[in-house]
């Protein structure tokens, strides 16, 4: 008998009373008078920078103003003309090491916790994590109230990977002192587009 | 006779200053958790839902695991089933050998601790590198985690600084946490870039979609799966949940309960390998779980989502530290999991509970941890691990408390015991005198006082 059959057989013999699934539709998920305002507030508390793009603004110029010393900029987004590395065409994920700024697109933002849904959008998703600084372009009309709404809306593409990102990477593993910039991005800047 | 826990707790308490810091630090995390919970008006409803979803899923595990496997395979992953730790380790090593893996980077996984996977792989010549900063610190220091979410909490920044001087070549006497974190980042970046495979645990497996969901703040699980050409995800059977509606409930509870954040920085959903990597492997581990389900008093421990909030709030954990427990998971959760695993080996932990029940009142999935500790204590005699002195004294109390005459005589004369010198009353033979002075018995016992009062009332 293989292990799967053994495990499932033992479970079926041992399980006692069975419980029904609760009705999750009855959850009164938190909502906000203006989810965008809540989203902007929460990104401040998680240490992200946030700018609202106005008509006529050039995103390329604004990114360079945020990161004036950036030399290597990685993005597969066509509107990011300042990109000099393309995660879609690099030979290997390793080639994106040393990226000063990575620019990616998020599809949805969550007001309650600042999460942004970033489905994989190019061959090497490592751009989301390996870049020293991460720039996320987020449609301002995409903000939902809470995770219940978010999980009903998010979509996967054929890459079959997606991640919620809420700011820069962080840790408090040394003596519980909060340090921003652990193994992934050391800063996060959001542009509402 | 002290329990193994109380003996080790004594050692922990020798460093008074550190013990106080430890206590305050975790109480601070508990307070952050409370602030987060207060911001969510439907918090208690979420906890009840989470508990109900888990009760349902765990009692229908066969259905959900098969659904999870079918969807994961449809997504392009390879799914393995492991009965126990030995099979788990040999499956992992088999995959690594097949792909000629010399170096494995991994994110934090209590499952691999449970199976003692690292030493097994190292004995077979695979270099294993932990990439969660806390896990990396204790790996370099050749230690085990002292907390499931904050594994290096037993070390201060000077100890980490000295460790990094020796192991990573960091600047001498620069023990600034920000600097040290950056040194670890540089060192781990090199490991990510040169590893042949990445291994992650799983916070959740979603049956309806086949997702492996991994939550981190550091982004280390993502680095470990975005650079090396192979991803292995490992998951205990009980981590499977039905669907995204359920996931939303757990996601909202997990980070708020664990560290008092509204979310972890990264919540990654893996369905298959990246286009430039080999097929993703998923290893499902039983290792006792389908036996524990048969235990009517203790099966609900399987609901746990490993947030660690029961440890943060536990007054005994806060003042005794992770290393005072004999099981690799400490605190209220670890007491119960240890007893399920091997009651003879881990009975020494069940004393580490004041039955304040703070753990089960904060638990996001309502595991009745404190109630279970109480129940384990009732079974110690069956396991042959009851304290013999306490048993003897209990027999004596039984003889007194069931006979009113004997009881009255004893309480009338109890004050005479006040004259017994304290070195006799508080000697090692009296297990209740440990850590506190014996009480002074009153000349008049309570029921006499009460009767006298009644007489006075009647006389008026």
What does this structure look like?
Chain A is α/β, with parallel strands linked by helices. Chain A is built from five helices and eleven strands. In chain A, strands 1-11-6-3-2 form a five-stranded parallel beta sheet, with helices on both faces. The radius of gyration of chain A is 20 Å and the shape is globular. The model of chain A has no long low-confidence stretch (mean pLDDT 97). Helices cover 52% and strands 10% of the residues of chain B. Chain B contains 24 helices and ten strands. A six-stranded parallel beta sheet of chain B has the order 1-10-7-4-2-3, sandwiched between helices. In chain B, a hairpin with a 4-residue loop joins strand 5 and strand 6 (211-216). In chain B, helix 3 (43-58) packs across helix 12, helix 9 (157-167) packs across helix 10 (177-194) and helix 16 (331-341) packs across helix 19. The longest helix of chain B has 23 residues, at 16-38. The radius of gyration of chain B is 26 Å and the shape is elongated. The relative contact order of chain B is 0.13. Classes of the chains: A alpha/beta (193), B alpha/beta (460). The interface between A and B is large, with 76 and 90 residues.
Describe the protein's topology.
The complex is a heterodimer of chains A (193) and B (460).
Chain A (H helix, E strand, L loop, with lengths): L2 H12 L20 H11 L3 E4 L6 H8 L6 E3 L25 E5 L2 E3 L5 E4 L7 H4 L2 E6 L4 E2 L2 H7 L7 E5 L4 E2 L7 E2 L6 E6 L1
Chain B lengths: L3 H11 L1 H23 L4 H16 L2 H15 L2 E5 L2 H14 L4 E4 L3 H5 L2 H7 L3 E4 L2 H8 L16 H11 L9 H18 L2 E4 L3 E3 L4 E6 L3 H7 L4 E6 L3 E2 L2 H15 L7 E5 L10 E5 L3 H4 L16 H5 L1 H4 L12 H11 L1 H4 L11 H5 L6 H10 L1 H4 L4 H14 L2 H10 L8 H4 L20 H14 L1
Parallel strand pairs in B: 1-10, 2-3, 2-4, 4-7, 5-8, 7-10
Antiparallel strand pairs in B: 5-6, 6-9
Helix pairs in contact in B: 3-12, 9-10, 16-19
